[in-house]
């Protein structure tokens, strides 16, 4: 029960950061969203908001990696489509209000939050490394695979921002079409 | 003198939002950065932080449009290189700490900030429309021009996020190389 309340807070934090950024997400927001009692914050997260933010990032990263590893693409196009599909679901399910929690930290964090920026860097690297590996596995030469993977990650993250402003998944769909031409 | 102090505050707000997002930028930060006296905030911006944020967005948008219009590319590749060059300067000059203030608003703003999200949408549209026009002017067919322009905008915005986490311009350079292949 106690650990369930803790897990709910991390899930709420991840969802809220993906909607309004890390600076825009307060402890009060997380309490309201998760229904956790106020006293539970420093009980569960003695190091404060940074600890909660790092755990929310880890939760997001883990979900994305598990999803990516579930992919069974046999062509570069299928691999790219699978990479983007999880984000497409996020945009459609939220009517364009949710994006990527890791970007929500990277855009917000100032110099005092070096540990958050470093965590975001490691997560982005793990995603592009995994995507490059999957592209190589379906025949894309190694140097191209890395370059296409980083470009796909950047284009996907930027498209999520455009989807937010348009309240529409169209920018992501358009970008995916163009990404496919990179591996044709 | 009075208008100079006001303009300094808008410039500071634009710079700070590009570094730490809109939620992460407080009036106090803007006062400290611009050196404006505390009383000047509600004198100059009676509608509060949203007014200052909108003016900072307008300043950024105007600078980018003026820069884009100064381009004299004669090939699709030159047009794309020029589109990205202003952001490359921002990243290099700030050692990767600064990105795009419009993204810093779009990622941060929650549902209560519909006017900010709408302003971000209009600015992104104006940039991609202008880039598409410049691509058409050098021979890219209209439907391709729009698709490449939106993709270039998305990839550039996402690359700026990766540059922040890497404290390095390398992700942007890599993405530009891939974008070039879209218009080859």
Secondary structure topology:
2 copies of one chain form a homodimer.
Chain A: H1 2-20, H2 27-34, H3 40-44, H4 49-69, H5 76-93, H6 101-106, H7 114-137, H8 142-166, H9 170-182
Quick recap:
Two copies of one chain form a homodimer. Chain A is an all-alpha fold and 184 residues long.
Mean pLDDT of chain A: 93
The CATH class of chain A turns out to be Mainly Alpha
How many strands in all of chain A?
0
Please state the second-level CATH architecture of chain A: Orthogonal Bundle
Q: How many alpha or pi helices of chain A?
A: 9
Q: How far apart, in Å, are the first and last alpha carbons of chain A?
A: 51 Å
Order of helices and strands of chain A: HHHHHHHHH
Overall form of chain A: elongated
Oligomer: homodimer
Q: Hey, which two chains have the biggest interface?
A: A-B, 45 and 45 residues
**Low-confidence spans of chain A:** none
Q: Describe the biggest sheet of chain A?
A: none
Can you give a write-up of this model?
The structure is a homodimer of 184-residue chains. The first copy, chain A, starts with a helix and ends with a helix. Chain A has 184 residues and is mostly helical. Chain A contains nine helices and no strands. Chain A has a single domain (2-182), classed as Tetracycline Repressor, domain 2, CATH 1.10.357. Chain A binds chain B through residues 19-24, 97, 99, 103-104, 106-111, 117-118, 120-121, 124, 147-148, 150-151, 153-159, 161-162, 164-166, 171, 174-175, 177-179, 181-182, and chain B through 19-24, 97, 99, 103-104, 106-111, 117-118, 120-121, 124, 147-148, 150-151, 153-159, 161-162, 164-166, 171, 174-175, 177-179, 181-182.
């Amino acid at each position: 029960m106690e650990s369930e309340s803790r897990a709910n807070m991390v899930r709420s934090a991840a969802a809220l950061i993906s909607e309004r950024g890390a600076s825009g997400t307060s402890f009060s927001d997380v309490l309201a969203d998760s229904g956790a009692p106020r006293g539970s914050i420093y009980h569960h997260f003695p190091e404060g908001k940074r600890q909660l933010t790092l755990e929310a990032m880890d939760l997001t990263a883990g979900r994305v990696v598990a999803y990516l590893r579930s992919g069974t693409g046999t062509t570069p196009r299928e691999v790219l489509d699978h990479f983007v599909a999880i984000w497409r679901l996020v945009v459609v399910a939220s009517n364009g209000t949710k994006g990527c929690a890791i970007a929500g930290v990277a855009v917000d964090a100032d110099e005092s939050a070096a540990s958050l920026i470093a965590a975001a860097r490691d997560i982005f690297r793990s995603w592009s490394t995994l995507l490059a590996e999957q592209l190589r596995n379906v025949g894309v030469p190694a140097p191209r695979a890395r370059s296409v993977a980083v470009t796909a990650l950047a284009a996907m993250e930027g498209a999520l921002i455009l989807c937010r402003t348009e309240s529409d998944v169209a920018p992501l769909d358009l970008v995916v079409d163009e990404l496919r031409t990179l591996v044709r």
